[in-house]
Amino acid sequence: MSDLLKNLPSLTSERLLLRQLTLEDAADMFEYAQDPEIARLGLWPGPIKTLAESEADLRDVLRDYQTGRYAAWAIVHDLKMIGRIGFHYFAFDSRAEVGYALNRDYWGQGYASEALQAVLAFSFNVLDLNRMQAIVLPENSASIRVLEKVGMTREGLLREYVKVGETFLDVYQYAMLKREWLSV
Ligand SMILES: CC(C)(COP(=O)(O)OP(=O)(O)OC[C@H]1O[C@@H](n2cnc3c(N)ncnc32)[C@H](O)[C@@H]1OP(=O)(O)O)[C@@H](O)C(=O)NCCC(=O)NCCS
Fold first, then answer.
1. Which residue in 23, 45, 74, 158 is deepest, having the highest Cβ count within 10 Å?
2. What are the pLDDT digits (tens) for 109-119?
3. pTM for this model (two decimals)
4. Of 130, 112, 128, nearest to 176 (Cα)?
5. How much is the CA Rg of the chain, to the nearest whole Å?
6. Which of 128, 65, 123, 134 has the alpha carbon at shortest distance from 97?
7. Domains of the chain
8. How distant is the alpha carbon of residue 121 from its chain centre?
């Protein structure tokens, strides 16, 4: 399992290529990651402020690839990196938590749902995970729609679960089990 994560394969879908991130993605990532609304909805500590910060973030990802506990793909459309999807892998019981963000210019065209489907297929069919979960702000209607479109179930409201700056935020928890994936 962790060998698979250390050598994360590319995934393809109808319109997208999901591949390992590289330092060359810094400019494309900076293009969307400087957007304060994307950072807020993505529950990040804050937007990325400079190209150098984008490069530093990618260097961390490259380091994380070595540990096999974090998987992250660049979402590529027509050779442009338009977003990112990835998950933290919790080895002790085959459970992981997925997150994603997309360049605003590409919203509303089904790309996030398509990318998430590809990652779920890889996670359940290849990695043999039993459970994939996600947390989302209650006002993040687009992401909630993405999670529900792919068949994830809202399990409840986690009260003051995430700390962003000095504020504790409520989030919904969504999840899907392998047997649910296999039955759709
Ligand atoms: C969440 C995000 C990745 C969605 O990307 P996307 O490619 O536009 O998603 P999709 O096109 O696959 O699906 C979005 C769905 O939400 C719907 N939607 C969009 N805005 C909406 C709104 N304000 N209210 C209700 N539904 C909305 C779209 O119509 C679409 O549903 P449909 O296919 O039934 O028409 C993108 O908005 C984003 O990057 N947001 C900022 C970061 C973020 O929120 N990350 C997730 C953290 S949990």
1. 74
2. 999 999 999 99
3. 0.97
4. 130
5. 16
6. 134
7. 2-130 (3.40.630.30)
8. 14
